[in-house]
Amino acid sequence: MAGATTKRAYLTNWTVVIPVVAVIALGVTWGRDLAGWVVGLLAVCLAGAVLAAVHHAEVVAARVGEPFGSLVLAVAVTFIEVALIVTLMISGTPEKTATLARDTVFSAVMITCNGIVGLCLLVGALRRRIAVFNPEGSGGALATVATLATLSLVFPTFTTSEPGPEFSGAQLTFAAVASLALYGLFVAVQTVRHRDYFLPITTSGTVIDTEEHADPPSNRAAQLSLLLLLVALVAVVGNAKSVSPTIEKGVAAAGFPPTVVGVIIALLVLLPETLAATRAALRDRVQTSLNLAYGSAMASIGLTIPAIAVASIWLDGPLILGLPATQLVLLALTVVVGILTVVPGRATALQGGVHLALMAAFVFLAVRP
Q1: How far apart are CA 259 and CA 276, in angstroms?
Q2: What is the domain partition of the chain in residue ranges?
Q3: Which residues form the Sodium/calcium exchanger membrane region domain (predicted)?
Q4: Per-residue pLDDT of the chain (369 residues; tens, 9 = 90+)
Q5: Which of 34, 43, 278, 330 could be 38's S-S partner, Cβ–Cβ 3.0 to 4.6 Å?
Q6: Are 154 and 331 in contact (CB under 8 A)?
Q7: What is the pTM of this model?
Q8: What does the alpha-carbon distance between residue 357 and residue 236 come to, in Å, rounded to a whole number?
């Protein structure tokens, strides 16, 4: 009797109910013209799904331990993000979708490497005067992100096989294979060979191994949370897509360029990772925050580019991946500042503020190019 009561209480918990309601709302409204009040309800479902995703990601992370837990949310979000990009490219016109993959991936890199990293460093430093992390693990992650971004987003601007900032078929194949191989190698290093480089370090110098120092949830609870995490992420991405026409109208009415829509959608999609990383920083686990941030950037490039390369076989129109000059400067500055941040293994509020300033510059220049 007590077991049945506990099960009933769990099934009526908001972290279970809200993802299901959000997915049902998505199914009912998908592909339809929506009234203003319906968009408002979808926005509420979107916010609830974000909070539920963070909760279930933390349950799964507590079960599998770090750094495996940090991979769960990053990879899950990226797979759904890839599906969304491919869907939009199939349904849209070639002229409007030619730069969609590039804009989405670059926005994800800027948001994760500057927005999430800056926010978590600032929170961690303000709470404990200094944010401490492992420079070996964070440095390797940043190096991988920089290499992936250069291979996929910088080289197309300078190659000459195709006119404009595009790859030839052979070049795109090489970039896709290299990105996938590099991402797979990093995951192997992070989770097996040098797992200790990615474990959280407290300001007192203590390494936190969640598998040894915390009572993990049961396998059944973790499996259910993993399922609900995927449901919540589908709701986040799908409802963000559903409210995007309203966002597009608002952006057009404000006189902003169309690329702002992509930035807004990327911000919404990355909300679960942002909240999870911030909560980790508040618990003095800045390394977990950096694992989430750089892991998300890495997955966004390492999984999206191969998927788009395969999809381009049957998709019509050009695939523009090369960044323009302003974005190239932002990416280069992000890498340089990131190196100076992670090498010491300790950061103050100043480093967090610098990264947030770069994030603000990215958003401002997207609005006012």
Answers
A1: 27
A2: 67-211+243-367
A3: 37-191, 225-366
A4: 445 555 555 556 888 899 899 999 988 887 777 787 888 888 888 888 878 887 887 788 778 776 676 677 677 777 777 776 776 676 666 776 788 888 888 999 999 999 999 999 999 999 888 999 999 999 999 999 999 999 999 999 999 988 889 999 999 999 999 999 999 899 889 888 888 888 888 776 666 665 444 566 788 888 888 898 888 888 887 887 787 777 777 877 888 887 777 787 778 778 888 988 999 999 889 999 999 899 889 988 988 888 888 888 887 778 899 999 999 999 999 999 999 999 999 999 999 999 999 999 999 999 988
A5: 34
A6: yes
A7: 0.82
A8: 27
